[in-house]
Amino acid sequence: MPKTTDQIVFGFGRIAALLRAGQWQAGSGADLNPAQAEILTRIARRPMRPGELAAHMAVSPASLSDSVSSLVGKGLAERQPDAEDGRARLVVATEDGKTLAATLPAAPAGFQAALDALPEPDRARLLRTLIHLIRELQLARAIPVQRMCGTCRHFRPHTHDDAARPHHCAFVNAAFGDADLRLDCDDHDEVPEEEAAAIWRRLTAA
Ligand code: SF4
Q1: 1 pLDDT band (50/70/90 cuts)?
Q2: 124-138, pLDDT tens digit by residue?
Q3: Does the pLDDT value for residue 189 go beyond 80?
Q4: Does residue 155's CB lie within 6 angstroms of at least one atom of ligand 1?
Q5: 195 in ligand 1 pocket by Cβ < 6 Å?
Q6: Domain match, 12 and 99 both
Q7: Of 1, 40, 68, 106, which has the fewest Cβ atoms less than 10 A away?
Q8: Protein residue closest via CA to atom 3 of ligand 1
Q9: Cβ(35) to ligand 1 under 6 A?
Q10: How far is the CA of 22 from the centre of ligand 1 (A)?
Q11: Residues 122 and 181 in one domain
Q12: Residue 15 banded pLDDT, cuts 50, 70, 90
């Protein structure tokens, strides 16, 4: 019998291929490659410094700069001074860039439909397992730091008696459940690793 991990790796490989094909397809109509589409989607949510963008996307500064220059050349992005640091620059989406970003699907329609077809508890379990896996990869420095609840100053895991919504986000002052755990949150405020480890212990103990 093949090992369980082999089957999981195979499954992730199939899904990664589907997502990558979807990215090429979605971007091709707008003349964007997947990297340009991802940058545009991120800066449409909020302006970012090039170093932060490169870290989130796990690409070199040179490669990031090429992609940003392409977006600037297409009138979809601009480099602007950062008001918080006179020496720094921000990559900002133009109005055309924001309009285009709003039309780019997060995932191929078929994949979205397959996720929607899962029972809600299964979807929540899948998200929690993915978060756990990403945390392990992050600790192993195999992927960049993710702006997820498990490493956020505002996250209070398992503080409410409500089994459906046991967690609390102090940023929005609201209770929420596993299905709403975030993997990429714009309001994320990273804590030092010792605090993240304590948060993680509380999250996984239950
Ligand atoms: S601010 Fe975002 S990442 Fe932090 S706890 Fe709230 S939802 Fe999670």
Answers
A1: low
A2: 999 999 999 999 998
A3: yes
A4: yes
A5: no
A6: yes
A7: 1
A8: 149
A9: no
A10: 28
A11: yes
A12: very high
